[in-house]
């Protein structure tokens, strides 16, 4: 049952990165769009994420519940020592959701729409930035559970080059996957070309920020190169991601939207496998060489069994309903364009 819980935790993180990441990425794309095209981008993004934008955060909630119930030591350590980036991320989610609702459903159209738009795009950038910072901090080896000062306990744990560079890499990935998803929502050739250019720009940003991740890891003494290239799984995942990226760019102009989305999703999956496989099950690496493990720091067996059953049973209700929700709105969107 423990491995069922761990599998659900990993899948929840993956799905949040794929679905919630594309959700955030829509705002990132809008942020870096010219004023002449913002209205078009806003309309297309709304049609794409409007039906399911709130449901995407379900995966983050599931991951938090799994940590809280199944791995309380890990949950408490992260929530205490990373409470500042966690609070900023959660405020970003709230601000973004509020702005999205008001700018699309406000009964009065006035100058406040401009405020809502700015809150939406900037919170879309800030939220994945701090999500990446939290992820980087967990494995940076900077969390000091024996710290005696505020700065060493609650600032140094996340404010370092490695964590920040992962934050910008996460932003780039969200923007890239959103651009690929939005290509399929474009209704004419010019709009499709515009999102292709955005995907290319975000791809370049991901390469640059990804390179900075390796540079900062070397500077901070983090064995990231060994994590990625020191095992056959990591090498295979990186190779598969590169091959799929080449295929995607060869198909980008004429390929079917579903195929492009699958290729982009596959690349994100390979990235997550690459960065999590080597140091599994050590989900949090502490300063001084200690770590928190998904195996050693689990809850009581009874709690794990109950949590696993709840996840399995809940999936029977949640997943079919979510698939039907997405299918229903996609079908309605196709009918609306006829």
What key phrases describe this protein's structure?
membrane; two-stranded antiparallel sheet; mainly alpha; electron transfer activity; 2 strands; 338 residues
Structure explained in plain terms:
- One of its GO terms (biological process) is aerobic electron transport chain.
- Its main location: membrane.
- Helix 1 packs antiparallel against helix 3.
- This protein is 77% helix and 2% strand.
- The protein has one domain (2-220, 293-336).
- A hairpin with a 5-residue loop joins strand 1 and strand 2 (291-293).
- Strands 1-2 form a two-stranded antiparallel ribbon.
- 38% of the residues are buried.
- The chain is mainly alpha-helical.
Tell me the number of strands. Answer: 2
Distance linking N and C termini: 48 Å
Tell me the fraction of residues in β-strands, as a range: under 5%
Count the helices. How many?
13
Radius of gyration, in angstroms, nearest whole number: 20 Å
What's the rounded overall pLDDT mean? 88
Helix content: over 70%
Question: Number of folding domains?
Answer: 1
Widest sheet: strand order? Answer: 1-2
Main β-sheet, in a few words?
A: 2 strands, antiparallel
Could you list the spans in which at least 5 consecutive residues all have pLDDT below 50? none
The SS-based structural class is mainly alpha
Pfam families: Cyt_bd_oxida_II (PF02322)
GO molecular function, one term: electron transfer activity
Main location: membrane
Protein name: Cytochrome d ubiquinol oxidase subunit II
